[in-house]
Structures
1.
Amino acid sequence: MKAILLAGGKGTRLRPLTIHTPKPIVPIFNRPFLHYQLDLIRQVPEIDEVILSLNYQPRRIEEIFGDGSDLGIRIRYVVEPMPLGTAGAIKYAGDRLTESVVVFNGDVLTQLDLAAVIRLHRERAARATIVLTPVENPSAYGLVETDAAGNVQRFVEKPSPDEITTDRINAGIYVLEPDTFDRIPSDVAWSIERSYFPSLIERGDTFAAYVYEGYWIDIGTPEKYVQVHRDIMDGRFRAAPFDPTPEGGVSLAADARVEAGATIEGPCFIDEGVTVKAGARIGPYSVLGRQVLVEEDATVDGSVVWPNGRVCREATVREAILGRNCHVGRSVRVGAGAVLGDKTILTDFSRV
Ligand code: GDD
Ligand code: MG
């Protein structure tokens, strides 16, 4: 059995982080996001190949995962000539498939029992099976109505307030039968959410729903990107490399240097080669990537700082995300919600 990961989106909502780092490989702690998805897929031994469907910066992604042998799973890359939309991409990537295929949106993280979804698909002899999950506000997702027997009745992508009739949304994980792909036109952008799923419902094909109520998140916005780190640090989702067991939940690399007089408050993650100088304070829910330097009397609190950043003396970074190689000058204040692209330089005393 094969799995297709849709990882071709531009990651617009995560800009500027995704200008140099496509969304599928933004780091969660210190591992590219797709690693976490591959961890889940590897739990189903029947899946012997993962097809990565790409079009935005595909080389960057290939360089990281190669043929998958390091991870113990075969990886193949299919690069679209142009963005074909979610259904077009599946058809293009799954061109020669003859058996059921598992499809993942490339930006969702979950602890779902994937094998159970595949079992349901087979038991129901479904043409398609979709995973649903409850969320507080469905407006940013695909809303899915089902009947009492667990069949999908209605699919509304990005519903307006008056269309919200349930809290269950499309979790972005499907099992599909490739012989249904004939209804997807070739070589034009086509959406699985807006066209393919509604067409299954119209034709009365068996379209089963698997409801999952455990951990699930789409990391596609800065808020959710920060949230996933918090959830892992809070133990709501267990994932390497964060180890919640040390005292206070402070995950500190062996070679990180924390000077006497610095304060570290967990939970937080401090990666290899980090230096925290005397008088500096690292507050809860902070993530310091490799080689980050936090100077005397600076504060980093509730923020994710990608590798090689420098926070100069007396600066404060609160509830922010800093891309790679950022320079936060002396006494700078970076406040809640700030997202700095790679190599941002903030001159001493700036306020952001
Ligand atoms: N290869 C390829 N080509 N991939 C694409 C394309 C394309 O043209 N367009 C989008 N993708 C990939 C994205 O990289 C992402 O992994 C996935 O398809 C979904 O696209 P998003 O842009 O993240 O969509 P969304 O989050 O607004 O909504 C989707 O996901 C929700 C769950 O997180 C929809 O599927 C919703 O129905 C769903 O609820
Ligand atoms: Mg998304």
2.
Amino acid sequence: MTERIARDFPENFLWGTATASYQIEGAVTEDGRTPSIWDTFSKTPGRVTNGDNGDVACDHYHRYEEDLDLLAKLGVKAYRFSLAWPRIHPNGGSVANAKGLDFYKRLVAGLLERNITPLPTMYHWDLPQDLEDKGGWTNRDTVDRFGEYVQTIVGGLEGIDTWTTFNEPWCAAWLGYGYGVHAPGHSDIGAAVAATHHLLLAHGVGVDIARSLQPEIKIGLTLNLGAFRPGSNNQADLDALWRVDGNQNRIWLDPLFKGEYPQDMVDLYSDTTPAFTVVKDGDLKKISTPIDFLGVNFYSPGTIFGAGRHKEAREAGFNLGPIPEDAKPDHLRALGVETPGRPKTAMGWEVDASGLRELLNRVKNDYTDIPIYITENGAAYYDYVNANGAVEDPERIQYLAEHLNACAGAIEDGVNLAGYFVWSLLDNFEWAFGYSRRFGIVWIDYDTGRRIPKSSFNWYRDVIKNNAVPTKA
Ligand code: FCB
């Protein structure tokens, strides 16, 4: 028997790569754009590593032609990017800014000229600051403002047949309103629950408006679902696991696919405010409007211990990081840790692609068999330009190969996986980590804006060309 050296992907598998507006564009005051919550947050001392911000980022706003050429060289069939709401409706108002829209018209035209399918995301976290000043995602009015924005972009941009409403609403709600580590930087669990609901509602409203403008549209959203394992079979760990699963998976998937919030989550947050009191009649019907595909972002699985289980976790050799022994348990009452001995990326995230295959099977078995796209997967490493002027990133190639093999495995399991997007095309502004973490398959020299494709770029180009991934990197 000959050893299998590559695994083929289905014909028409949608190979792509992804970016997001605030992380790459720069030009934050140009052509009528007004500040987003990330401009404000990144300019607040102490929020972002090294005080970095997105003022220039990859200067993609000016260099997009060069980036389009890189995409063409890579041979991707699709490109996932996001639109900056404050370029389109400055100040979060209702009036379209033609110059803001024009930028995306140029970008889309450039993609179509190169035979690359545009896959825009409506919201990848850059809420207009003016809307945050009125409560942001805790305020139901933001849902209506989002609807107006959808009207402008779907009505105003031609040549797009597939849209994603939201990217990772969990991060927007929980990192932004619950844990204070992302913009707008609030630490209020009840606010995070309200934001969860309004983000989901805005998704449903966006789907309806987009379909009314363009009945043939394909529309979905992207979730960062978790593959969690219990630290042990101890009941405290199993309970914690279920809560974490509720917070990151079921609180999104149940309303979207079953039209209801999980009762244990409603109970868990009932001592916070406003939490689920913001839900009104008809909301869940709107949220559960059928979608055409589901985007899944995956980076790393998580092992969960219950509160008070620190000692046992340490004894089992887990690294608990900086969390103090007597940490007040939050509403999750759980502690994610890393498995001893597993390789980690520069984010400190453990590498274990089996979590991805597991997760995709779970979505299929418990929720839906609509097409799934892996809308983000990738890894940060401490890349550098070597003496020959090249950037060699074998760890990233290894990471991508393992995860693509997991994708191929999921397809063999019967998962309706229709595409895969590497995060990211370019090194970029990694949110609270600023420019200190590089996820790109293209190196960015932040002083000059120069782009250098890394060795993973060439490797991924071959995967796309062969429509197959080597079983060994
Ligand atoms: C995801 C975000 C994306 C990027 C990656 C590393 O949570 O959607 O913008 O920062 O993580």
